[in-house]
Amino acid sequence: MISVRPAILCGGSGERLWPLSRQAKPKPFHALLSGRTIFEDTLLRCRGAGEGVAFSDPLVIAGAAIEAPVREGLTSAGITPAASVFEPVGRNTAPAAALAALLAQKQDGPDALVLIVSSDHHIAPVASFRETVAAAAPLAADGRIVVFGIPPTRPETGYGYIRKGEALGEGFSVAAFEEKPDADTAAQYLAAGDRYWNAGIFLFRADVLLSELARYEPEVLHAVRSALQADNHIDESAFAASPSVPLDIAVMERTRHAAMIPARFAWSDVGTWPSLADALDKDGDGNVLAGDVMAIDTTGSYLRGEGVTLTALGVEDLVLVATPDAVFVAPRERAHEVKQILTKMKSQDREDLL
Amino acid sequence: MISVRPAILCGGSGERLWPLSRQAKPKPFHALLSGRTIFEDTLLRCRGAGEGVAFSDPLVIAGAAIEAPVREGLTSAGITPAASVFEPVGRNTAPAAALAALLAQKQDGPDALVLIVSSDHHIAPVASFRETVAAAAPLAADGRIVVFGIPPTRPETGYGYIRKGEALGEGFSVAAFEEKPDADTAAQYLAAGDRYWNAGIFLFRADVLLSELARYEPEVLHAVRSALQADNHIDESAFAASPSVPLDIAVMERTRHAAMIPARFAWSDVGTWPSLADALDKDGDGNVLAGDVMAIDTTGSYLRGEGVTLTALGVEDLVLVATPDAVFVAPRERAHEVKQILTKMKSQDREDLL
User: Fold this and answer.
1) What are the C-alpha distances in Å from B308 to residues A311, A343, B67, B320, B345?
2) Which of A75, A86, A292, B334 is 20 to 30 A (C-alpha) from B118?
3) For residue A330, which residues of chain B lie inside 8 Å, CB to CB?
């Protein structure tokens, strides 16, 4: 059994899940997929031993603005992290991965195996997730930076793609990382059968990642090393000096050590209300009803009443999310455009609702 | 100029305007049609002199459960009523009209002219309303019980109809009162051109009404006389002994003194969200947006955010009413069926929301 140090990144705002997701309590801190918050689901998925992998206590790397809900979630899930660090400013995932590697080395030595996961994804079942980590572990131990590839199920234009190369252990080498495609290209990718979505999940040896960062983005590594203090506090001005860059661009697209492991689990970034609804079981009328909802003659809809009783009569294919101070409604096929509402709110100085 | 004593009846619950209208604060006490509540609009419509009629201070006859919002509304409108009485139990409009007649006689003597109006109707413009009252006044002074008839604009099945007889002053005698029709009959009524909706607005001499009640429903009159005390308190057990009966059935369908005056004003009972929307001006997209609402690419909809920010994107022909504890959504053509929701709530012991 291989020991793996999970590093949970809590970054993105989940804006498109407004009005539930707010700046002070973004997406990971809501019970959207189960009775627990997505953050707690993530913590519980990455602990204990089984399916060929033993997770040690997690590293948690989060924005300073969400320290309170992060600490609440840890307590609520009964998890004591090996370390929690709070970034005073956001610098994307390359600095966060560097922090994870440095913290893991403190715990486990230079060749610590680090699993980078996001705090706000839907992943199921847990056993298949663990099996995928176990399958990737020998590649990572062997010096590969392994990215998890999700077999695509639709011509999605919102994700980056990975084109697989030749077989490598239980995975593949990476022929290319490909940017978010247009619709035609996405359809070609889907038809080709050799593409995978890049879900931002990585397994690597800490020393390998740090050496590749030193080679390709030395400013990131320097800033992070300078910023991380003995007590895991992060010095703001040192950290802010890092370039803001995703791990994919900083390392993955350049390194000769990339590998890809096909995910054996169902995955969604649940980035929008419709994609969240897609990830959940429907009732007999094709609805997902969450919270305090009463629906009559209603079909194909996602209805969420959070601290509010939501009632619907005769509606079809609607997304309606109600909270005590804000409500959002849209047809299902347009609910992903909620940012139009947020943009308008900002222009009207309604930041109180964001 | 004829002096008229308005008697404002605050009874019905306005259930179909849920979730705004609640048992403790029903329809008349919400600002649905203007910046003031419907009750205040009604009070202000029935005061002062002009267009041939001088309204004296109103009588207010309300259910005991809504005494608080009634008193608030009077204060807010700056109206001191001639008398306010609060019925300990509801017994429909015949006893309420009897109360109005008795109270008016105390103020104005036996032949007081009493105008019975509901507290929760849309009526506009005010001048046309007053002109209609002035036109009805000679008939009432002459001993007729005058019902206001609304020229029908659609084959409505939700109202009773009045068939006009021969001309009588500026109005007509009544050939027949007709029950709520089925759809075919309503279409025939509309085509015939001799029917009017019965809007429950009456003008009569107090002595005439009381004598007709004594003739046709003596138990109502006896109960009301026994119940009404010198300080305008209503004794519960005496009042509860009255039959529960509408004025139309108790008197209008039986009396030989009925007359009908065609209304010169626009009228709606604003009983449902769609009928409320119909009574209001639309924006360029055919929407009525009330309260704190942000709508993008939205057409033909009634959206109300009451103590909540309501946002909509890309919706069509929807009714959505949001309050801090309850939300209702339905397609416009089904929004009148909101009672289905209320029935289900009652069956689930959710009386807190009614």
Assistant:
1) 16, 19, 27, 12, 22
2) B334
3) 312-315
